Amino acid sequence: MQHKTGSDERRTDSAAVLKSLVAITRRGLVDARAGEPTLSMTDQSIVMAIADQPGIRSTDIARMFRLNRSTVSRQLSALMSLGLVQETPSNSGRGRPLELTAEGEEAFRGTLRSLQDVIDAHLAQWTDDEVQRFAHDLRRFDSGDEQALPRPTRPPEEEEK
Questions:
Q1: Left (φ > 0), alpha (ψ -120 to 50) or beta: where does 107 sit?
Q2: Angle made by CA atoms 106, 109, 115, in degrees to the nearest 5
Q3: What predicted TM-score, i.e. pTM, was given to this entire model?
Q4: 101 with 82: CB under 8 angstroms?
């Protein structure tokens, strides 16, 4: 079924989806900051990226979040000094792979627990069928049509030489 992408109602609904996703994520990440160690939203995002992709490099994180490499470097230095992230040896010569320490894994699990608590609270009054349908629709939304999505451009300092 084809939908008109420019209709006012569709644009309003699309904006409501964005607003809700941002608000729910923010609330969850703010709640997760109450744990120890206290991590900023950026710190939590970086920890989650490393947990999801052990061996990721700082340049990959910078590209993923569209941040300057120096910003990511500062964040990683702080996370390393907290004992949450460590570099691992590599023979590739293109940056050191990153992984979480045991403390980093625990911080990651704490963040996930806080986020899950927010989601569970929002879904408490929903039926099992409603939750199942919502999960299905979110998976569909998240997988998206990769070909239809605009490709992010790299900042000039990120371009391969």
A1: alpha
A2: 145
A3: 0.67
A4: no
